[in-house]
């Protein structure tokens, strides 16, 4: 390799690294700005209850996909740690629904806040070939409706969740 080719290759490598760095910075800035816009919409989440009754639907392991502003399944909620995918356990109680997430805060969805539970093909960048995401639509104390997505490890258990609302 001659000197001209080496210099050109190094300059091109530096330009690519700088472009990638600027792209990552722009993505992070966009994520932070989205969070700032959503703070008022989301407000405070309902607190976890001190005690709950017996389970109506036993715990189901799976993946917490994320929350979106209803009805836009691509408009991810990024306030706090609601925007991060993580392993989770979904449980139904008479008082509401508990989403216990690993590495993140648990989410409590009061029963009176749930407006719909349905199976979806996709949500927040997670698309499946069949209806594999359980979407729980509920109203926050702030009045905003959001969809919480959960992909269960055993999708045959979805029928029980869908029957419970009907």
UniProtKB/TrEMBL annotation:
Recorded hits in InterPro entries, A to Z, give: PH_bac (IPR057446)
Q: Where are the transmembrane segments?
A: 6-28
Which part of the chain is the PH domain?
A: 42-165
Judging by the UniProt lineage, the source's domain of life is Bacteria
Record keywords, A-Z: Membrane, Transmembrane, Transmembrane helix
Pfam families according to UniProt: bPH_11 (PF25362)
Name used for this protein in its record: Transporter
């Amino acid at each position: 390799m001659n000197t001209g080719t080496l210099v050109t290759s190094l300059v091109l490598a530096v330009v690519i690294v700088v472009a990638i760095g600027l792209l990552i910075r722009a993505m992070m800035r966009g994520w932070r700005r989205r969070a700032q816009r959503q703070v008022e919409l989301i407000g405070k989440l309902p607190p976890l209850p001190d005690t709950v009754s017996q389970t109506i639907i036993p715990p189901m392991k799976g993946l917490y996909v994320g929350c979106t502003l209803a009805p836009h399944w691509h408009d991810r909620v990024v306030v706090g740690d609601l925007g991060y995918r993580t392993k989770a356990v979904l449980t139904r109680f008479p008082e509401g629904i508990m989403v216990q997430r690993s590495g993140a805060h648990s989410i409590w969805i009061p029963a009176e806040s749930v407006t719909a539970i349905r199976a979806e093909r996709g949500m927040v960048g997670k698309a499946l070939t069949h209806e594999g995401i359980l979407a729980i639509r509920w109203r926050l104390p702030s009045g905003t409706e959001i969809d919480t997505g959960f992909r269960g490890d055993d999708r045959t258990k979805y029928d029980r969740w869908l029957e419970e609302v009907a």
